[in-house]
Amino acid sequence: MAAVTSVGESVPAARPASPGSMQGSRRRKLNLFRYVVFTLFGLFFLLPLVAMVRFSVEGQKAGSWSLAAWGQIASYPGLLSAIEITLELAVITCLAVLVLLLPTMIWIRLRVQWFSRAFEFLCLLPLTIPAIVLVVGLGPIYNWIEHYNLSALQLFWVYVILALPYAYRALATGLEAMDVKTLSEAARSLGANWLTVMTRVIAPNMKQAILNALLLSAALVLGEFTIAEILNYITLQVALFNISRATSDARVLFSTSAAALLFAFALLVILSYAGRRRSRRRG
Amino acid sequence: MAAAVTTAGARPRRAGHLSSLSFIGTIPFLGYVGVFLLLPTGIVIWNAVRSPAGQFDPGALKLLGNPAVRSYFTGSIELCAVSSVIGAVLGAILAYAVASGNPSGVIRRLSLAGSGVLAQFGGVTLAFAFNAAIGPSNGFLLHAGWYYNFPWGIGLIYVYFEVPLMVLVFLPAIDGLKIQWREATENLGGSTYQYWRHVGIPLLTPAFIGSTLLLFANALSAYATIQAWENQISYTVPQQIYIAINSEVGLASNEGDILALGMVVLVAIVMTLYVLLQRRAARWLR
After folding, report:
1. Is residue A181 classed exposed, middle or buried when 0-12, 13-18 and 19+ CB atoms within 10 A define those classes?
2. What is the ipTM of this complex?
């Protein structure tokens, strides 16, 4: 829920234990403790994923191997279109979150400071309203939207709300790290308009924070199930759920799940790597 | 709605008349949040307290006392208590192991990034992964007969995303323990046990309980995982909300709304306690 600590967030400056300041025997005991803990938790977190991948490459006969389930991702009825819709939704949601949130955050910081507490409250509010509750109230609103357009892409309206707390925290971290006021006053006194200030002065200074916000929003859309299922839209997660209900040990279930997870991991690695390289060059 | 906020915010302004003009810049955001967050919540509350004819009638809320409805709430609370307490204890141990290492080391970076991903990795996929690992008929590690037991089977699955969340929210508290406090204990002749017994644990307790509450609220709103785990029987409120809004036969025409309102109230209580405890925790840490 409040896993709002964004991925690339920096390590706190004050640290409790510096390695050199401890006696040797206690240090050794602590290290032993750490290795045991990391091994056990590593196993706990990895084994279910390994099991999933293992099932995805199992052949018809027990003990044989086959990549058929991975090939099925493209051919299984309805699956590919669900994947396509989910990816499109992720892109649209990311853009909408950014367009809605970033200008408002900068604007509030510069011109309407007194509103910032209430604004933060509104942004974090979706954390306390479960998606299953939100969707009950959304019924009438989506009836009205569907009156005009029935596409599953309409889900992005509410996905923006779900992504709000995570994107807000990521962007706020970025904004706090720079002197928005001075930067914008400097740009304004050189004749820049507000649009230029936002797009060419402030946004480039918080690239990592924007990347984090986009990553968190995309991850959220890729994994969302509740709202899509109840509003009867077939996204990736809903498609997987339907397959699992029809045939509980369909291999394609495991291959698609594993592929989705690998995709999310890859996205994360690429983004964090891109961000790290940039900041290293700068400092 | 936007107008109400404008008047509420009429506190000291530096920019004088410009400020009310500047406020226009926030209206797109407020409009959006109003339509897609505040309005649905309002609809739920209104539908829960009205009669089928559309009159205000809080009597409908009596449904919350119905034994069947109560059992969904007890089920939810039981599952969330089990998974959040286990998740919090394990997460705290892992957080300590992370915190006691090199602050800029690979392990810390990896743990934080991994926690960020895994805390979000709920959903139907997680249930599939556990079914593949320990499912009673085709488990890769073992054929766990207790896999479909409530709350332990599903509780174990929940722990999978609760532990990383605990690491994320509890790590700052452990980082806030100052090395000087440890040294002071040692200078006074205290042992490691005494340090934890009289200094460490008392300092971390408010943050620990607060984080556990957050985990509890997190588990409460989870729906996809339990639905993919077992969709024939309703154990929890979210499952029953799904059934209530998808079938004509129910305890009342607005059963879904009433259950949803009950959940909002429950989450609100938990989150209020969380905020209060976080404030208490912040007194010493930092």
Report:
1. exposed
2. 0.83
